[in-house]
Prior knowledge:
It contains 16 helices and 15 strands. It has 424 residues and is an alpha/beta fold. It has a 7-stranded mixed beta sheet, with helices on both faces.
Amino acid sequence: xxxxxxxxxxxxxxxxxxxxxxxxxxxxxxxxxxxxxxxxxxxxxxxxxxxxxxxxxxxxxxxxxxxxxxxxxxxxxxxxxxxxxxxxxxxxxxxxxxxxxxxxxxxxxxxxxxxxxxxxxxxxxxxxxxxxxxxxxxxxxxxxxxxxxxxxxxxxxxxxxxxxxxxxxxxxxxxxxxxxxxxxxxxxxxxxxxxxxxxxxxxxxxxxxxxxxxxxxxxxxxxxxxxxxxxxxxxxxxxxxxxxxxxxxxxxxxxxxxxxxxxxxxxxxxxxxxxxxxxxxxxxxxxxxxxxxxxxxxxxxxxxxxxxxxxxxxxxxxxxxxxxxxxxxxxxxxxxxxxxxxxxxxxxxxxxxxxxxxxxxxxxxxxxxxxxxxxxxxxxxxxxxxxxxxxxxxxxxxxxxxxxxxxxxxxxxxxxxxxxxxxx
Length: 424
Ligand SMILES: Cc1ncc(COP(=O)(O)O)c(C=O)c1O
């Protein structure tokens, strides 16, 4: 760091400011977390210099003897942790992981059934502005308008009518448990592959607090930086055999691997793969299980507090690490997001089911507990944070309330410091 300070003070100072911002605010963005110092250390290494196109012991460049060992350890840890037959640690991100799976399993123009984006699906699950929606023929299932839970009757009917080659059991802002078995039954009826993108719930899954996508899914993708609390990145888990093509030239595992490389990526980020290995080891510890339990408890408490304040929580609560609230009665979600940020409370605006507003300024905000739980906040503080947020949301034009909330956030941040030994 000292070196960077001297050679590039402009970037050094901005990094320093961003670290300070992360330390001084309460991160309630459901997809963010604080990776451990061990994870960060593994990333900040000369492993970044190495070209390792290919896979362990089948590389296109020399000098990969140690890289091979690191990537093999990461693969084995991922297989063990996720109870998977096959793991690919190379996707640079969650979006890359999804792109690689689509490339491996379907052809451009083929049909994919995904979860409606306004109900909680992700951009890479068929948005018209994303490669997924541009290259593949997507149709969607959604939620029941009354319960706001996934409507399996609708999903089945959509599958029977649409006859997709691939079905996604995948969400980015859905706060309820996913029933992978039911998705499997639908996929079997139409002879489709079933993929779960568990980017958000991966930590909950490995800790045993969310049903496991295996053995029901053929392929599972995830990010490593959300509830899993690792470096920014993606990974793919799959079965070895291809259920729909058992006698084909390639196994499912081989198709996935070639979907990643040479399919959509060149050289893997081996410094990030090393950090993924570190995070996977951390996720095997009993303390990680305890952490995930608290993540869910905190989210439930926050949902309860919002409901007490008269705010509409989508589906009336949560089973996982996130919740979505409808802020449309109080103002524009962009304004509310910005005002919360000014008070040191970071959230992201989000669509709600059947949203009539535009994606840039939708009706809801999404709130997640992974990061505040890493800081050590428990039920009492989670309730307090929700109370502060609710007050601000309901009084979004009140300068007096805003003035009151900021110091309260500061007090919590001070009581629950993060990255105290981080030297910058
Ligand atoms: C369900 C889901 N899949 C994929 C992604 C994309 O991940 P990344 O931002 O790493 O590309 C996200 C990101 O939020 C996500 O929520």
